[in-house]
Amino acid sequence: MGEIWQIVGGVAGLALLYYGAEWLVRGGVRVARAMGVPPLVIGLTLVAFATSAPELVVSIDSAWRGCGNVSLGNVVGSNICNIALILGAAAAIRPLRVHRSLFRRDFPLLILASWVMGGFHWLSGGVNRWEAGVLLAGLFGYVGWTLWKGKKDGVAEAGEAEEAMAAAEGLGIWAALGLVAVGIAGLAGGAKLLVDAAIVLARMCGVTDAVIALTVVALGTSLPELATSVVAARRGESDIAVGNVVGSNLFNILSILGIAPLVAPITAPDIHPGDMWTMLGLTVALPLLCWKGRLGRGWGWALLAGYAGYMGWLAVRG
Q1: Rounded distance between C-alpha atoms, residue 154 and residue 157, angstroms
Q2: Rounded Cα distance, 112 and 276, in Å
Q3: Mean pLDDT over residues 10-21, rounded?
Q4: Backbone dihedral region of 97: left (phi > 0), alpha (psi from -120 to 50 degrees) or beta?
Q5: Where are the alpha helices (DSSP H) in the chain?
Q6: Which residue of 26, 78, 90, 185 pairs with 233 in a disulfide if CB–CB is 3.0 to 4.6 A?
Q7: How far apart are CA 39 and CA 69, in angstroms?
Q8: What residue segments make up the domains of the chain, in order of their start?
Q9: Secondary structure string (H, E, C) spanning 165-220
């Protein structure tokens, strides 16, 4: 009977995810206006961190329990899902504009952080405490630099942000902050309800923990990013849709793997090299797909097909 209620809770989690994403995007854009920061930067910081909260909670809990495969698999699987499924779905709905500053700053940083994470996994079979310290220092540096640069460039980019700002007209700053807080709570709570339900179903099917982490847990904790990016794409706020995914992937690596191993070092022997290479390949390919300043519908469908293929490979691998 308890399993049935968990599955019912997963359905409620879907509603929380959708409305949480809507409130977070609207409130985040209004906060951006009040701070004089472009929506792109809000996508790369506030929205990205908020939608990465479920991954952080799951990975810390898994590290504490000694389930390193779940902690690292959650990050690897989520980053694959964010690029292939989430950006693919958002681009399939509407071609996404890609801000040029992503090519100067965030794409190179994401590629660097991804390869550093892959190197740590190759060296130690996971992430130990000193490696986590390196990633956490990178997080503080990235957030500080992004906010400073965004504030500095805010006036120059104000014209490009007018469409996004219009959606938040008439919303007071305190109401916007309240929407952000409620949105974060809805995203985190909805993801937890949905992941709990999905894990029950997965274990009923006899799926291993490593595959659960790379599929069910990764997909479930990435649903906030999916909901947020799809809603932003439908509203024409491409800067938030793309910036959210790039920022979330950076936060997944720098914050989750910078904090969880401090609780307990992560060892993940069951993460297949193919999983890591899939994540690294997609990360390197993303700026190439967006090189013309947009991610079109064709590439969106190609990314979705690639994600389906990866899921098929995991199913065969077991």
Answers
A1: 5
A2: 14
A3: 76
A4: beta
A5: 2-35, 39-42, 48-64, 68-80, 88-93, 101, 107-124, 129-153, 162-166, 173-204, 209-212, 218-234, 238-251, 257-263, 273-289, 297-317
A6: 90
A7: 35
A8: 2-317
A9: HHCCCCCCHHHHHHHHHHHHHHHHHHHHHHHHHHHHHHHHCCCCHHHHHHHHHHHH
**Exposure letters 104-121 (e unless 16+ CB within 10 A, then b):** ebbbebbeebbebbbebb
Top CATH class, 2-317: mainly alpha
For residues 267-278, give the mean pLDDT: 90
Q: What is the amino acid identity at position 50?
A: A
- Read off the pLDDT of residues 189-215 as tens digits, 9 standing for 90 and up: 877 777 777 777 677 777 776 787 788
The residue that leads in pLDDT, 80 or 36, is: 80
Question: Could you tell me the two tokens for 260?
Answer: 């969880």
* Token pair listed for 8: 């019912």
Among 291, 295, 297, 300, smallest CA distance to 103 is for 291
pTM: 0.78
Kindly report each contact of residues 274-280 with a partner whose C-beta sits within 8 Å and lies 24 or more positions away, as own/partner. 274/313, 275/73, 275/76, 275/77, 275/80, 275/214, 276/76, 276/118, 276/121, 278/80, 278/310, 279/76, 279/79, 279/80, 279/114, 279/118, 280/114, 280/115, 280/118
CA gap 97, 88 in Å, rounded: 13
Residue with tokens 């959650």: 74
Q: Note the residue count of the chain.
A: 318
Contact 42, 28 (CB under 8 A): yes
State both tokens at 42: 């809000």
